[in-house]
């Protein structure tokens, strides 16, 4: 420790201002907050004088190391001048506390020591020390080391702020892209409706039914969202079906029915080749939502669990809305009639477990039907 009679070298203060470390960033450096932790008041006083002469005005000090953490959390200093040998709590203990509570992960600690033992210095570095200041203090060296560490701290903070700003920007751009992608999907879904005789809110209702069923089937929240956003594309392939077949008021002939069935493959082809997970999921739904549990569906005659789960979910949701909606060729079935019909198809057309889950609680389904009913 410095003794009472120790004096700082007699140095002209103009040397500090003209030192190589001075540049345009000097005002920001001098605006930094310095925390001194040393059990010897004389050391604190000497450092305060040195800091004052160098232009620093925000200096906090304590001779009680057990108060260091509270002062650090209160003042958020840009640098800590820390003695190692102190009673009650040594410098290593203080560093351990600061590392635990420093939110940025960078604690700018300048250790004050007369210790020459390499083992002690190694331990200090491992504990979080960034640099050492030997006693007795040299005025120019002290000012330079303090300044360098403060500058490093400010550069670290600047980088952290920049990273946070970039993260916000990326999140905003990602959200914009997602919203744009969703808008395109809905518009394409509506484009398919214009070629069909389905009602305007069909894709909204059935996609929300699909979300409810996806949740009940155990899909994660992100997966539920993906199903909701991809489901409107299930019949996009109808764009490729001739109007004479798609809009035919009467029953289709066997040949016409074969053409109509191609809309699943047309939709999958329209959506193929995308790197977007959402479009890839929409492709899977378009291709598989007409497969049947018993293997008599189309286009690939898949059966049971070989049918992608999202295709099975959309199949239940789509058929329920089709049955309970008005069409030019039919009246809207009641929910009870639709449930009875779909339960009869469970194990043949539909995944029986999903049918059970869908009709287990109709409260959410009724709310969706009421909110998005046709004008």
Report on this model:
The protein is an alpha/beta fold. It is built from 17 helices and five strands. The chain has a five-stranded parallel beta sheet with strand order 2-1-3-4-5, with helices on both faces. β1, α3 and β2 form a beta-alpha-beta unit. α13 packs across α14. The radius of gyration is 36 Å and the shape is rod-shaped.
Gist?
This protein has helices spanning 14-17, 26-30, 41-54, 68-75, 91-101, 118-127, 139-194, 202-216, 221-230, 243-246, 254-261, 263-270, 277-288, 309-323, 335-345, 352-360, 363-371; strands at 33-37, 58-62, 79-83, 109-113, 129-134.
Layout of helices and strands:
Elements lengths: L13 H4 L8 H5 L2 E5 L3 H14 L3 E5 L5 H8 L3 E5 L7 H11 L7 E5 L4 H10 L1 E6 L4 H56 L7 H15 L4 H10 L12 H4 L7 H8 L1 H8 L6 H12 L20 H15 L11 H11 L6 H9 L2 H9 L4
Parallel strand pairs: 1-2, 1-3, 3-4, 4-5
Helix pairs in contact: 4-5, 8-9, 8-14, 8-17, 9-13, 12-13, 13-14, 14-15, 15-16
Q: Could you tell me the radius of gyration in angstroms?
A: 36 Å
> Can you count the beta strands?
5
Main beta sheet strand tally, sense and closure: 5 strands, parallel
Nearest-integer average pLDDT: 85
Query: N- to C-terminal separation?
Result: 86 Å
Counting structural domains, the number is 2
CATH architecture of the largest domain: Orthogonal Bundle
Q: What string gives the helices and strands in order?
A: HHEHEHEHEHEHHHHHHHHHHH
- The CATH superfamily of the largest domain is known as Hypothetical protein af1432
The percent of residues in helical segments reads 55-70%
- Runs in which pLDDT lies below 50 for 5 or more consecutive residues are 1-24
């Amino acid at each position: 420790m410095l003794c009472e009679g120790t004096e700082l070298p007699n140095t002209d203060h103009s040397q500090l201002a003209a030192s190589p470390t001075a540049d345009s960033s000097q005002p920001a450096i001098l605006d930094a907050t310095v925390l001194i932790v040393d059990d010897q008041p004389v050391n604190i006083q000497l450092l305060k004088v040195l800091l004052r002469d160098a232009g620093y005005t925000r200096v906090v000090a304590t001779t009680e190391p057990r108060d260091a953490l509270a002062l650090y959390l209160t003042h958020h200093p840009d640098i800590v001048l820390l003695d190692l040998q102190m009673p009650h709590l040594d410098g290593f203990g203080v560093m351990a506390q600061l590392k635990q509570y420093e939110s940025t992960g960078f604690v700018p600690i300048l250790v004050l020591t007369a210790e020459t033992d390499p083992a002690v210095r190694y331990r200090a570095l491992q504990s979080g020390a960034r640099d050492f200041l030997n006693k007795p203090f040299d005025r120019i060296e002290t000012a330079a080391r303090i300044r360098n560490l403060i500058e490093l701290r400010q550069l670290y903070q600047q980088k952290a702020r920049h990273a946070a700003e970039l993260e916000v920007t990326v999140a905003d751009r990602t959200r914009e892209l997602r919203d744009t992608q969703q808008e395109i999907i809905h518009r394409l879904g509506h484009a398919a409706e214009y070629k069909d005789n389905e009602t305007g809110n069909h894709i909204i209702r059935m996609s929300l039914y699909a979300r409810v069923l996806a949740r009940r089937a155990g899909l994660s929240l992100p997966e539920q969202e993906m199903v909701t956003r991809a489901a409107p594309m299930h019949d996009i392939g109808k764009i490729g079906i001739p109007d004479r077949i798609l809009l035919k008021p009467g029953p289709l002939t066997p040949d016409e029915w074969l053409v109509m069935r191609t809309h699943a493959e047309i939709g999958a082809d329209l959506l193929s080749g995308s790197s977007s997970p959402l479009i890839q999921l929409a492709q899977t739904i378009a291709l598989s939502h007409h497969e049947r549990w018993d293997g008599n569906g189309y286009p690939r005659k898949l059966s049971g669990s070989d049918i992608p789960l999202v295709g099975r979910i959309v199949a239940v949701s789509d058929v329920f809305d089709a049955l309970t909606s008005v069409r030019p060729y039919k009246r809207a079935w009641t929910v009870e009639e639709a449930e009875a019909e779909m339960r009869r198809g469970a194990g043949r057309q539909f995944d029986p477990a999903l049918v059970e889950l869908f009709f287990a609680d109709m409260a959410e389904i009724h709310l969706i039907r009421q909110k998005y009913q046709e004008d």
